[in-house]
Write a structure and sequence with these properties.
With 216 residues, the chain is an all-alpha fold. It contains four helices and two strands; from the N terminus they run αααββα. It has a two-stranded antiparallel ribbon with strand order 1-2. A hairpin with a 5-residue loop joins β1 and β2. The longest helix is centred in the middle third of the chain and has 108 residues. It starts with a helix and ends in a 10-residue tail after the last helix. 0% of the residues are buried. This is Small ribosomal subunit protein mS26. It comes from Schistosoma margrebowiei. It is found in: Mitochondrion.
Length: 216
């Protein structure tokens, strides 16, 4: 089949603008431009009947709404009354349960606090006893030190025996410190220290017989 007729038809369609067959807005006919629409005449009997029907409809509608509202409120009040009764019973039951639990916990807490208080008292008592024992030991130690010092009063240097102590120190034997202490703690005495005699320089050996000349 030749494509020439199709091409010719396409070119013709491109140059020709189509008119819509079913427009959305139909233009007003030219012969009706000067015509003015008159309001529809109202029938008085029909108008009075329509108003009466409208008033009756509104009255019946409001009556039905009020009836529904009354029934709903009545059911709500009945439910609230029933729930109040239930809540009162439940509240009393919970109050009794709470009071019982409070009494039990009070007894348990009292026992626990008594045990804690007893433990604290015992701990403080033990600490007080330890402190008193330490103070007694310290007092005994101080007394022993005082007794030791009292026993050494004869060896102390005072104003009365100062001259005698000085004479005793001056006339005391010389202490030889030439010793060492081995690993076992024993004292090992040594010999007397070697006397380091000063080195004598032989001046005669250092004197040359003839002085060095400049040519030698």
């Amino acid at each position: 089949m030749s494509k020439l007729p199709v091409l010719a038809k396409t070119l013709v369609d491109m140059g020709h603008k189509r008119v819509r067959k079913n427009p959305r807005v139909y233009p007003k006919a030219k012969g009706k431009f000067l015509k003015v629409r008159q309001p529809t005449p109202i029938d008085p009997v029909e108008d009075a009947l329509s108003k009466k029907w409208w008033v009756d409809y509104r009255l019946q509608y409001e009556a039905v709404r009020n009836l529904f509202r009354y029934e709903i409120n009545r059911h709500q009040m009945e439910a609230i009354s029933a729930s109040r009764i239930d809540h009162e019973h439940e509240r009393n039951r919970r109050h009794e349960l709470t009071e019982t639990w409070n009494k039990e916990t009070f007894l348990l807490a009292t026992d626990k606090f008594e045990r804690l208080l007893k433990a604290l008292i015992d701990k403080q008592t033990d600490r007080l006893i330890d402190f008193e024992n330490k103070q007694a030991e310290l007092s005994d130690k101080l007394k022993a030190d005082l007794d030791t010092v009292a026993m050494l009063t004869g060896q102390m240097i005072t104003e009365t025996n100062l001259d005698d102590k000085i004479d005793e120190i001056m006339n005391y034997d010389v202490v030889d410190y030439n010793f060492v202490v081995d690993h076992s703690g024993s004292i090992v005495r040594g010999t007397k220290p070697i006397k380091n005699e000063p080195h004598k320089i032989d001046m005669e050996e250092n004197i040359q017989e003839e002085p060095l000349s400049a040519t030698s």
